[in-house]
């Protein structure tokens, strides 16, 4: 039997554990620290070789992919701007051009700036569209640009639908602008809260029928006596002027009626011989002059103008008619007027 070996079948005796020396403990600690350093270096190298999602421009895992549409709902001001961007500037009855045109739009922009600022939602959408920083103080020239878009946005009507979208009825200006004489485009459809536009109908269209017409009840002279303009019908006989300026019978080709704003005004023109007529300031006389441009002392229909008083009109709608014949003129109270309706 070899020395040091337990006899077969002898019970096992517990081994006595030898306590490690200080040198052995230090060596083990150094080995552990080295392993940790290797792991840290590997992680750092891996990070340096693989750019983060933000650095590479890629969205983090689980993030939605970029979309052409904003993630949230747009304001109504932003939706209206989307319509302008899609179809071009709105062709509408500018409050500074009707019922009578004004040539001081830049001054009006400054005077009405507090009104523009008060409509924060519309202003924010306009500043974004024009590329003006929200916190910047616009110059006078910028205020004029904002004012023009503000008026346009106010004229765009959005009708809320049951599905959360909005219906629109949009008349876009001709490619050459409102004064080019070209045709615009009449578009109807819907726009949802993300700005997605669905067109139901698109067709060529002429200029808007702006409120430069007659008050309801204005009496038109006819061969059978005066008839209120809102009671006339196409084909009905009315007095008109021929090429020589003589009174002759014509007939109504077309009738028109448009709503007017609550602050619409009428001009009551009174002549020295007692004849008078009331109509919108932008309505033409038979000679083409606008009613609002006539002043006391001027001559109309061979009589001197005595007065041209303005007064509010709360009738809600104005009216006009298109008459057959070379002049298309018609008679109200003995004063001959032209028509605002295109033939």
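Sequence proposed for the structure above (343 residues):
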């Amino acid at each position: 039997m070899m020395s040091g070996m337990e006899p077969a079948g002898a019970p096992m005796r517990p081994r006595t554990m030898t306590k490690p020396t200080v040198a052995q403990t230090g060596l083990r600690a150094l080995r552990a620290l080295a392993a940790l350093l290797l792991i840290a270096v590997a992680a750092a190298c891996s990070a340096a070789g693989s750019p983060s999602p933000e650095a590479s421009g890629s969205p983090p895992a689980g993030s939605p992919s970029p979309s052409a549409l904003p993630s949230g709902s747009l304001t109504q001001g932003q939706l209206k701007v989307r319509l302008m961007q899609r179809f071009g500037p709105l062709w509408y009855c500018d409050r500074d051009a009707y019922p009578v045109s004004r040539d001081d739009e830049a001054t009006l922009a400054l005077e009405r700036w507090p009104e523009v600022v008060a409509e924060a939602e519309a202003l924010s959408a306009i500043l974004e569209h024009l590329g003006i920083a929200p916190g910047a103080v616009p110059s006078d020239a910028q205020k004029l640009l904002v004012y023009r878009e503000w008026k346009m946005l106010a004229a765009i009507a959005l009708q809320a639908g049951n599905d959360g979208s909005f219906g629109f009825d949009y008349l876009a200006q001709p490619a050459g602008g409102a004064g080019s004489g070209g045709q615009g485009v009449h578009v109807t459809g819907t726009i949802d809260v993300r700005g997605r536009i669905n067109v139901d109908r698109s067709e060529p269209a002429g200029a808007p029928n702006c409120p430069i017409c007659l008050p309801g009840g204005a009496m038109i002279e006819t061969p059978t006596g005066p008839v209120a303009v809102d009671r006339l019908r196409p084909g009905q006989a009315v007095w008109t002027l021929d090429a020589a300026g003589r009174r002759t019978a014509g007939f109504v080709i077309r009738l028109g009626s448009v709503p007017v704003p609550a602050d619409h005004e009428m001009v009551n023109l009174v002549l020295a011989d007692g004849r008078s007529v009331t109509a919108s300031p932008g309505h033409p006389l038979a000679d083409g002059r606008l009613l609002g441009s006539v002043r006391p002392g001027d001559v109309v229909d061979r009589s001197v103008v005595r007065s041209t008083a303005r007064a509010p009109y709360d009738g809600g709608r104005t009216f006009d008619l298109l008459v057959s014949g070379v002049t298309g003129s018609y008679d109200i109270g003995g004063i001959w007027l032209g028509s605002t309706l295109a033939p």
